[in-house]
Amino acid sequence: MKKKFWSNFFMGILAMGFIAGCSSDEWEEGGNTPNPDLEDAVYMNVQVQLPVAGAGTRSNTKPEGGSSDGTEVGKPDENKVKRVLLVMANKDNNKIVCYGANNIEDGKSESSIIGSIHKINKTVLAKYYEDNGTNGTLSERTVKVYVFCNPTTTLEKIVADDVDGTWINATAEIHETYNEQNQSDITGADGAAIWGGSDHKNGFLMSNAGATEKDIPGNIKDWDVYQSADKAFNLSGPNNANTENEINNSGSIKVERSVARFDFRDGSPVGNFTYTLIEETEVEGGKKPIIQIQLKRMGLVNMSKHFYYLRRVSNDGKNDGSFVGGTETNENYVVDTDADEKSAANLDNFQFGDYFNFCLGSGVGKDWTINADARNGWYNSLMSDVVKGDEDDWENPEKNKYHIWRYVTENTIPAAGDGQIYQKNGVSTGIVFKGKIVVPENTTSEKHQTLIDAIKNATGDSDKDPILYAYGSNLFVSWTEVRAYAIANKEADKVFYETVFGTNFTKTPVAAQEAKGDTPAVEAVYSDDTNSPDYAWNAWHNTKETNPETVKSLLLAFKKKATGALFTLYQSSIDGEDAGYYCYYYYWNRHNDNQDLSVMGPMEFAVVRNNVYKLAVTNIKQLGHPRIPENDPDPKDPDDPDESSDIYITLSVEVLPWTVRVNNIEF
Question: Which spans does this entry mark as compositional bias, Basic and acidic residues (predicted)?
């Protein structure tokens, strides 16, 4: 049956005049066992070199390529090779032939070098020799060789069906959504196969780490000696040594994983993802923490839906002039499939959902906002769950162990053009940290007791719990406390006084006081400056209106005045069963670090394949962004540049190829 099957197959090729081919039949036949009934077959041997480990210290791309942080060998399943797809192409990347083999048992190998033997149809080769030479002799015997380890079914079909050379520009596609059951739903042409399936056990998609050229025999008759598996033509070593037909293809073909990885460790000074914001000097001279931030969750935003199967680079990140398989240096760019779209001067009409999984915001243009709908679409994990994950293989005794969080797709942004900045929040892959304002157990403070009580007693009902107001380094409980502080410090801080009450009032503001003993109560006097937040607060809080819509409108008017005066408002909510005051910290993944906040360097903010980005939040300097958009004086905008002087967190980043990049974040 097998003899008849293969005979019919080759007769079909000859009858249809195929010049190049790659079929599922060839895959099924495999590459280790010769078919004695098939005379029209020759064999090739190729060696694939997996990414290997090295050493380094800091996150920058070196001039010659690679990361200054060194490399990491990776987990066994990340290095597994179960199948190899090999494509030979001419100088214009038109396919000559492609063929595959299932010759690595269970994907296991004792070294970083994987050998693979492939069987191809000699008739296909003969056609190539006829079209590109004279009397069976090639005019140019150098060919381009492309290797795909663990190719997806979609990729196999793209290469096999190609007849016009467009396969070289093929893109992978993955759609991932996150649901309330803390599970991801992954679809798209390639799906989770790009990172070895949902359990990461079936081998990661890998491809050439650089452009590879090899020599093949000059005459079609020279292939006659390669008609058995044990005498396969070697694409990675010498052939016919010391003869006139000697061909020395030195060197294995280096491959790289097509996806990146994010690792994380707890970098907090006191542990348990906790950072002190407010502390007091004790009688003994020491300091005690009063108000802290405890990070509870981390979420992935803006993960690309598409990437090229084969890496390419260019001087500006655009496709024009790009080089397939080129090496990334500290002066060029890795090209993104959506480079043109991400080069928009502004993102007012950008359809974020067409390009990204886990979009940072909801809506398009002026309707774009980060709200509950957007946050529900982020991929999110409990911090406690992340550090329960697998530890990495990076041997650095001076660092705490990182834990593998998840795998991500490549996302790069082209160079600035016409004075524009393209590395923006709306199109950059980022990590959002959700923190809760907490108070250490048994903490008391005469100065901050009302704040401590408000945080401890929060119910999660934002209509009943007090609103917290942050201004500069101060955190107030209720607007009553804000105005009382402004009045008490009128002379010392005139700017704050005018921020609260304005400058065009006719009645001097007065703070309300309760009666104490013989001292009568004092009634509050509010600012009558209609442009002040104090006026708007009085109009809302002390309104006689009963219509809910009118009350809501007055509240929004107050919030607009307060945030316009640079107050940040925090209202309580519930995360699971945990009530409290929460805030968000945004971090845009840093691929290169030029150590200059005033200049956006090449590929500074990006995700690049085969890199591990090691993240650790080492310090938090201030409260983060509130969860309610109208409570934020500086809400995130898709056009915001990734680099800003407003630093909320410090995050360490180390990057190795399984290049690793580590990010220390400081908010």
Answer: 627-638
Do 511 and 489 form a contact (C-beta atoms < 8 A)? no
Where along the chain do its domains lie?
Answer: 2-258, 261-270+302-348+370-435+585-666, 466-570
Nearest CA among 256, 329, 326 for reference residue 603: 329
Chain Cα centroid distance, residue 415:
19
* DSSP labels, 366-410: GG-B--HHHHHTSEEEEHHHHTTS-B-----TTSPPPEEEEEE--
| Half-sphere CA count of 25, side-chain side, radius 13 A | 15
β pairing state of 253-257 and 41-49: parallel
| Distance (Å, whole) CA 51 – CA 64 | 17
The pLDDT tens digits for 550-598 are: 999 999 999 999 999 999 999 999 998 999 999 999 999 999 988 887 7
DSSP designation for 520: P
Contact between residue 651 and residue 438 where contact means Cβ atoms under 8 Å apart: no
Q: Which of 19, 253, 42 is nearest to 148 (CA)?
A: 253
User: In Å, how far from its chain's centre is CA 501?
Assistant: 44
Calpha distance 513→65 (Å, rounded)? 68
Cis peptide before 588 (omega within 30 of 0): no
What single DSSP character describes residue 544?
A: -
The model's confidence at residue 392, banded by pLDDT at 50, 70 and 90, is confident
> What DSSP element (H or E) covers 27?
helix 24-29
The helix/strand/coil state of 536 is: helix
**Class at the top of the CATH hierarchy for domain 261-270+302-348+370-435+585-666:** mainly beta
Query: Tokens in use for 572?
Result: 């309580």
- Extract the tokens encoding 533: 């937040």
CA dihedral (104, 107, 110, 112) in degrees, to 10, reads 90
User: What 3-state class would DSSP assign to 664?
Assistant: strand
Q: Please choose, from the candidates 192, 184, 196, the residue with its C-alpha nearest in 3D space to the C-alpha of residue 380.
A: 184
The amino acid sitting at 1 is M
